[in-house]
Amino acid sequence: MVEFAPLSVPLERRLQTFAVLQLIFSYLALYLVCYIVFIGLLFTRFWMISILYAIWWYLDRATPRRGGRQSALLRGATIWKYLKDYFPISLVKTAELDPSRNYLAGFHPHGVLATGAFANLCTEGTGFSSVFPGIRSHLMLMYCCFWVPVFRDYAMSTGLVSSDEESAVQILSRKRGGNLLSIVVGGVQESLIARPGAYKLVLRNRKGFIRLALTHGADLVPIFSFGENDIYDQVENSPGTWLRWFQDRLHKSTKCSIPLFYGRGVFQYSFGLMPYRRPITTVVGKPIEVQKTPHPSQEEVDRLHQRYIKELENLFEAHKLKYNVPKDQHLEIC
Fold first, then answer.
1. Which domain of life does the UniProt lineage start with (predicted)?
2. pLDDT score recorded for residue 198
3. What's the rounded Cα separation, in Å, for the pair 22 and 274?
4. Pick from 163, 183, 156, 189: which is nearest to 63 by CA?
């Protein structure tokens, strides 16, 4: 039986729904629309628009790997306040970040679409610049996303940068400090296990970000987003199922995969791609001081990695009861 939304929904809630709908559209379809429009214009009298953009695109091609190009106007747009209020999403600080230092943050868990990561770190919806004054936030996104015309510029304007080493080096080596580079460490593999009540992280063998922190002397910041996994359900894809086999094969060959997720609809509550209205609370942990080690040994990387996992577990345990996580529930690191 389909449960339809009442006609008397307040305007405020309709605006919240619209804000989330445009984000889902950006995740799932905007890149395709950008390609269609870019190519389609070539066969109209407006063909010069695509040609001029292509020239700009070529000249600007390295920008996603050089720290991007943020827009305070877009990051501070009112629409992100409505996005935040839909769930709602909250940003919690447990320690100060020194603006004279650079930081490398691990964001956990990925969730289906990393909604909390985007809302907190790429917009002012939760007031990031007020919570952490003097800190400029960047979030890594797969480099292939920056191959899409216009979409690339939109992504960079929010603080998204290319997820490769060159990009990280550009940000973490800035001498004046004040930069927070966040990596959703679990990546696509972790998105495949995101479902309500799950606290399983793909982290055991993810050590590249640890080596980066040591190489550049960037303090490590653990971030845990409570509720990130609760806003969508997924089709059953346990290891051994045909769906998981297909998803793993796709990831192995393309480095991407497709979580088959579902939530509610825009005008009804029974099915669709809109997330559930469930709270997300992103807790930023205390920085782990890192001494610059230009050529860290594997032993040094492993030691810091173990400390990072321990600090992340402590962060989870210290806050879980506040955010409705059962007392006997612990992080599962794989």
1. Eukaryota
2. 92
3. 10
4. 156
The pLDDT of residue 6: 82
pTM of the shown model: 0.94
Which residues does residue 30 pair with via DSSP β-bridges, in sequence order? none
Domains contained in the chain, number: 1
Distance between CA atoms of 63 and 252, rounded to whole angstroms?
28
Which residue segment(s) compose the domain that 205 sits in?
A: 11-333
pLDDT band at residue 144 under the 50/70/90 scheme = confident
3-state secondary structure 69-87: CCCHHHHCCCHHHHHHHHC
Whole-angstrom Cα distance, residue 248 to residue 257? 7
**Residue 4 domain flag:** no
CB 18 within 8 A of CB 80: no
Under DSSP, the state recorded for 148 is S
Report CA 176 to chain centroid distance, whole Å: 25
Please state, in angstroms and rounded to a whole number, the distance separating the CA atoms of residues 101 and 56. Answer: 34
The phi, psi pair for 262, rounded to 5°, reads -155, 155
Peptide bond into 88 cis (omega under 30): yes
What's the CA dihedral at 65, 67, 68, 74 to 10 degrees? 160
pLDDT in tens, 3-26: 877 888 899 999 999 999 999 999
Within a 10 A sphere around the Cβ of 267, how many other Cβ atoms? 13
Count of CA atoms in the C-beta half-sphere (13 A) of 313 = 14
Q: Which among 75, 71, 86, 79 is positioned nearest to 22, based on CA atoms?
A: 79
At 38, list the tokens.
Answer: 């870019």
For residue 6, being part of any structural domain is answered with no
